[in-house]
């Protein structure tokens, strides 16, 4: 049973640590262990003093425990150090990013390469410290504080994205303006990592700024997600997990569910409402842009609604562009998202224009092929990709089958099944754009943020597979 806390008015990240010590009951919860606001202040102050004395300037944070992560995040910026968030906990990935940082702050649960300079924060956090009278937290100038995040990208190669904290502060204010009244005293449960922009905002910084407690650790399995359902809980999740829910109705519903990181199929959204008691709020955006819009899929054609403070338009190629205080309010930011503007507030997404390839001088939309595949009764999901074989480009498709598709495959065999599949696709797609290779699998591989990685999909077509 989580202890209810009373959120106050929204507090900016710039003055967050100046809140009175009696302000909150709990910041984070780990089973029966409760982390109070005074304890959080004491931990942040102690660590910030320690870091301020070091000569190193660039501090990366990689923690499994969201409370330890939050302490490290606030301590680094109050120590006037540079903040880096690796997107991956894997030792080899951390080693690959090591040129970007001087010291890695971590907890006991994180595997660390021996070559890195590190500080294990777990011993500090487990000390029960009292806030000293010397603890003074200055007001931060957020526009001067940089945060480096990493996106995986479709190729899987990390790409550094630098944002200033005033941009995150602006987005937190918008999230609270939209959903604050509904969420009230709720506790945050999550299945997504705080190392990425979505988890960073929704499961750590937004709750901190609004006085809501959060779980220290992720819920990793659908069974855990369903067991934690409560009208006093909010679920921060992604399509990667929401598509795997069991067919058992929870005794009480979540008050709200959020999903981001990738498209949530309409069937999965409805399934979520049926078995978790809430229709997910899907949030559309990226590390570069921050949030752009949101929706609840009442119907498969439900459009997206832009955030109040975000302006939208399209360029001559009908690609979405935005003016946003989460990027730069003074100029337009161009995306690669093909878009249909319904009016000044609502829009439909039509796929990524950077998923257009050329074969024999013909422009081919991989998104369109995926859409047509998923219209077929035999196909549940599809991921289409270009493959280069013997210096020629060809199209391949990774697919998951419906029960009807599985039955048909077993009945006619692979060779005949692929012929029938291609025959059906010819209703809409030119012969040159029809996939030459197919891989039926149980589930399309996704990373922890619900994104498909090109390298994982390509590996499915290696000869030894």
TrEMBL record:
Gene3D superfamilies: 3.30.300.30, N-terminal domain of ligase-like. Pfam families: AMP-binding. GO terms for molecular function: ligase activity. Residues 25-296 form the AMP-dependent synthetase/ligase domain. Keywords: Ligase. PANTHER family: ENZYME, PUTATIVE (JCVI)-RELATED (PTHR45398:SF1), PTHR45398. This is AMP-fatty acid ligase. It comes from Photobacterium kishitanii.
């Amino acid at each position: 049973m989580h202890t209810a806390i009373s959120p106050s008015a929204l507090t900016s990240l710039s003055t967050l640590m100046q809140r009175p010590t009696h302000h909150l009951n709990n910041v984070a919860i780990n089973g029966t262990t409760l982390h109070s606001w005074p304890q959080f202040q004491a931990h942040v102050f102690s660590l910030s003093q320690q870091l301020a004395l070091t000569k190193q300037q660039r501090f990366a944070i990689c923690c499994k425990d969201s409370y330890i992560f939050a302490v490290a995040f606030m301590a680094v910026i109050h120590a006037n150090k540079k903040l880096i968030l690796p997107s991956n906990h894997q030792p080899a990935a951390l080693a690959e990013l090591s040129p970007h940082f001087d010291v890695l702050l971590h907890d006991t649960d994180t595997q660390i390469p021996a070559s890195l300079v590190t500080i294990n924060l777990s011993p500090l956090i487990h000390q029960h410290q009292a806030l000293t009278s010397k603890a003074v937290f200055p007001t931060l100038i957020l526009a001067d504080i940089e945060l480096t995040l990493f996106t995986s990208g479709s190729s899987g190669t990390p790409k550094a994205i630098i944002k200033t904290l005033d941009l995150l502060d602006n987005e937190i204010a918008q999230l609270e303006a939209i959903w604050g009244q509904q969420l009230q005293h709720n506790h945050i449960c999550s299945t997504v990592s705080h190392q990425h922009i979505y988890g960073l905002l929704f499961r750590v910084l937004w709750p901190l700024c609004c006085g809501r407690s959060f779980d220290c650790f992720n819920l990793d399995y659908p069974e855990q997600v369903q067991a934690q359902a409560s009208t006093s809980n909010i679920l921060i999740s992604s399509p990667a997990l929401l598509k795997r829910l069991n067919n058992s109705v929870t005794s009480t519903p979540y008050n709200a569910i959020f999903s981001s990181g990738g498209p949530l199929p309409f069937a999965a959204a409805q399934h979520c409402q049926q078995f978790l008691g809430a229709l997910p709020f899907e949030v559309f955006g990226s590390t570069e842009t921050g949030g752009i819009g949101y929706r609840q899929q009442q119907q498969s054609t439900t459009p997206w609604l832009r955030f109040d403070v975000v302006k939208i338009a399209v360029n001559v190629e009908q690609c979405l562009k935005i003016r946003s205080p989460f990027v730069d309010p003074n100029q337009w930011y161009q995306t690669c998202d093909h878009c249909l503007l319904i009016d000044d507030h609502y829009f439909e997404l039509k796929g990524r224009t950077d998923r257009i390839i050329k074969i024999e001088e013909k422009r081919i939309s991989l998104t369109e092929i995926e859409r047509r595949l998923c219209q077929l009764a035999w196909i549940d999901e599809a991921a289409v990709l270009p493959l280069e074989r013997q210096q020629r480009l060809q199209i391949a498709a990774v697919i998951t089958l419906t029960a009807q598709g599985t039955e048909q495959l077993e009945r006619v065999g692979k060779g005949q099944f692929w012929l029938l599949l291609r025959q059906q696709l010819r209703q809409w797609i030119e012969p040159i754009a029809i996939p030459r290779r197919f891989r039926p699998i149980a589930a399309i591989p996704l990373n922890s943020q619900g994104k498909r990685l090109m390298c994982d999909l390509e590996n499915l077509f290696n000869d030894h597979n």
